[in-house]
Design goal:
The complex is a heterodimer of chains A (272) and B (407). With 272 residues, chain A is mostly helical. Helices cover 70% and strands 1% of the residues of chain A. By secondary structure, chain B is α/β, with parallel strands linked by helices. Helix content of chain B is 23%, strand content 32%. Chain B is built from 9 helices and 18 strands. The chains are: A mainly alpha (272), B alpha/beta (407). Strand 1 of chain A pairs antiparallel with strand 4 of chain B, so a sheet runs across the interface.
Chain lengths: 272, 407
């Protein structure tokens, strides 16, 4: 083994091989995050259920009872939860990974490991909450007697799209956060805004036809629509050009985020 | 023919002053309440070479020590070799796996149990899951905390914490181990054990790069030493020669310190110095008192000015801190303008023989600015109680023994 340490300039390759060598560390970071998240909380992992559930109740009140938002052929609470689950998966994964490098500042300045492990394992650890919350969705489907569509086999694809989007935006923000602590104040605002500009509480069909394509620039439009389509089927159609745009755009974000992260990580230890 | 494991060629590292890493935080953690209000020193942003033109080779079966005063660039060098930070110029070639131990228990999570932290810490230091599992029992045995292995480490005493953390690190099997002053912690018996472990590493044909302020440890452990000063290698070679040269030059200490620029308009240090009866002022007999003298000008009235100082042993332990406001004297009153001289008197028969550093604080508008280890002095064995009968202790006060005849 021969490694040369010198001032890097220009493009830093991703080095997926090294990431793979450190896969055990991804596992341990994920495991630590999950363990620590609910230690010393009274109801523990129930929070993973309670958060989407309470949001669903509020949404049902505001969008269904007050605003009379249509939810197609399925009861509104189920419809809302079908959007809330992917949204909260994204929101958790994004904010955890955005904060991951600064949150591990002590490690960054004291020990070497591929820095990308931090945002990546933050993403992985947020899947746990999602899986727990998913059980609640299953229960709700039974209670409301909503038949599950045969499209369900496509669901993993949309979960993957959601995670790719979160990782892309997460790496961008994680790297920016090291230099600009303003990010901490921006994050809650971004998440709040994202909740309203994504079709979480309402169907995408409510967006005027001519704006549909542009609206799909928000990768979560593709994710959430795809989620509902996989779960509830035909009444929640997928707008294909929009989905393609969503996928393309989220891949662009990921490529840009990984590139930016890799090229700024050399300074992390000096400025963190 | 020994193999080269690390080859450093003209390494240099430039920092912009004012970057937060510049001040090590570890001191702030250790410091007493006397300093708690201190912020980080604000200096004008300009460039600073923490390391320049450093070249050396580390071979297998070799332990190299790096010595030098604080701010000499030792930690920066270790950080470059550990891949934590990039050199600004020059390059280092690594031929083998490097593990670094710049802080004991890095990545330990207080909420997790000892067992969980062993796995976490091991993975952070580069061990695989299988490797940790295989060595787990050995690690726990080495740490001597087996009874508490399922207790969250936040309930550990600091000694237990350090032992567990070091036990994990000691079971790494890198080709090169990079260690920064971690042996300064822990009790004597445990330190011995750690030294033995390092010796094992060397015998197994691997190499160690270690930073230390503790000259006796360096002499014991290393064949070769690099002496860094202001980012440059002043001298490198056989331990005995370099350590002797270093002691002759520096250890006696530095009796005076003149700051670069005042931190605020109201206050300006001219000099902080050690005053003692000894000829060079800094080689002080154990029974002899001395003074830390602050020479300064108050340019604007200061309602709540305060001076403070802290005496640290060579291994970094804080022995004591003292502040000008400890006593209800005139120093607690608003300071009047003009040139002033204040002395803090340290009695004899207090410090045990050894080398010490003095950290002082500079009063400023809203916070105090801390200047780390600006003075250094040595307490000799002359008239030392410890030298007289080999007693133990961190201090050796000459206490009064009163005899009252029981009637």
């Amino acid at each position: 083994m021969h490694k040369i340490l010198r001032a890097r300039s220009g493009f830093a390759p991703l080095n997926l091989r090294e990431l793979w060598q450190y896969r055990d560390l991804i596992y341990f970071f994920t495991w630590r995050d999950i363990l620590v998240r609910y230690k010393q909380t009274v109801i523990g992992v129930l929070w993973a259920v309670l958060r989407p559930f309470l949001t669903m109740v509020i949404f049902t009140f505001v969008f269904d009872r007050l605003a009379k938002v249509p939810s197609g052929n399925i009861p509104y609470p189920v419809f809302a939860l079908g959007g809330l689950l992917p949204w909260q998966l994204f929101a958790n994964a994004f904010s955890e990974s955005a904060g991951s490098v600064v949150g591990n500042a002590q490690l960054v300045s004291k020990v070497y490991f591929p820095r990308l492990i931090m945002p990546v394992s933050a993403i992985v650890s947020s899947i746990a909450d999602f899986l727990v919350a998913f059980v609640m969705l299953a229960i709700l489907l039974i209670v409301y007697r909503v038949p599950v569509s045969s499209n369900i086999f496509w669901l993993p694809l949309f979960i993957l799209l959601c995670l790719i989007t979160a990782l892309g935006t997460g790496t961008w923000f994680a790297a920016l956060y090291v230099r600009y602590r303003d990010i901490r104040h921006m994050l809650p605002f971004i998440l709040q805004m994202g909740l309203y500009i994504s079709p979480v509480g309402f169907p995408t069909t409510m967006v005027p036809e001519r704006w549909r394509f542009l609206y799909s620039l928000n990768p979560l439009v593709g994710v959430i629509d795809g989620f509902r389509w996989s779960l509830f089927g035909g009444a929640n159609p997928i707008y294909v050009p929009g989905l393609v745009l969503s996928i393309a755009f989220s891949l662009v974000i990921l490529a840009g985020g990984a590139y930016y992260f890799r090229n700024t990580e050399r300074q992390f230890a000096d400025i963190i | 023919m020994p193999n080269v494991l690390v080859s450093a060629r003209s390494l240099g590292k430039k920092y912009a002053l004012g970057q937060t890493t510049f001040r090590t935080l570890s001191l702030r953690d250790r410091i007493t309440d006397a300093f708690r209000s201190a912020g980080r020193s604000k200096r004008p942003a300009n460039e600073f070479w923490a390391l320049r033109e450093v070249s050396f080779d580390l071979h297998d079966s070799e332990v190299i020590g790096i010595i030098g005063r604080n701010g000499a660039g030792k930690s920066t060098l270790l950080k470059i070799i550990s891949q934590i930070t990039e050199p600004t110029e020059g390059e280092a070639h690594l031929f083998g796996r490097v593990s670094s131990l710049l802080e004991v228990g890095v990545g330990f999570h207080p909420e997790l149990s000892g067992r969980e932290n062993v796995f976490l810490n091991g993975a952070i230091l580069g061990m695989s899951r299988a490797e940790i599992r295989r060595k787990f029992d050995e690690i726990v045995a080495f740490s001597e905390v087996a009874d508490f292995i399922d207790t969250p480490v936040k309930r550990y005493s600091s000694g237990m914490y350090v032992r567990l953390a070091f036990a994990v690190a000691a079971h790494l099997e890198p080709d090169v181990l990079v260690v920064d002053e971690v042996l300064a912690v822990g009790d004597i018996a445990f330190q011995r054990k750690c030294l033995g472990k390092m010796e094992d590493i060397r015998k197994a044909g691997r190499a160690v790069l270690v930073v230390s302020h503790n000259m006796s440890l360096v002499s014991q452990l290393c064949e070769r030493v690099l002496w860094l000063d202001r980012g440059h290698i002043v001298r490198g070679g056989p331990t005995r020669e370099v350590v002797a040269a270093y002691m002759a030059e520096g250890v006696g200490g530095s009796a005076e310190w003149v700051p670069n620029a005042p931190a605020c308009e109201a206050f300006e240090f001219h000099m902080v110095s050690i005053e003692s009866p000894s000829p060079d002022r800094v080689t002080i007999a154990a029974d002899s008192g001395f003074a830390i003298q602050f020479d300064f000008t108050v340019k604007k009235p200061m309602p709540a000015g305060r001076l403070a100082m802290l005496v640290m042993a060579a291994d970094g332990t804080t022995i004591f801190a003292s502040a000008s406001t400890d006593h209800a004297t005139a120093l607690r009153e608003p300071w009047t303008m003009g040139r002033q001289r204040v002395q803090c008197i340290v009695p004899g028969h207090l410090l045990v023989p050894g080398q010490y550093y003095v950290t002082v604080s500079e009063p400023s508008d809203e916070y105090e600015v801390i200047h780390e280890r600006v003075l250094a002095f040595t307490i000799t064995e002359e008239n030392s109680l410890m030298a007289r009968d080999g007693r133990r202790g961190i201090v050796e006060p000459l206490l009064e023994w009163r005899w009252e005849q029981a009637s």
